[in-house]
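Slide 14.
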Amino acid sequence: RNIPEENLEMIIAITCPNILFPYAREAISDLVIKAGFAPVLLNPINFEMLYMQQKQQAAGNAVGTKN
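Slide 15: predicted structure.
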């Protein structure tokens, strides 16, 4: 409610995954181990970098389609 509209996309794309991913990573690891399989360790993800790359690609595609 109190989030400015211009910041909403970044919060959804960066902040939310940064908060949720460690819990999902731990849950997946625990379930795999409890199922009797070899441990699965998911690498940390830099959601800010992914967001910036996605924005750059979108900007590049937009420039390419204008010509």
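Speaker note: Residues 5-34 form the longest helix (30 residues).
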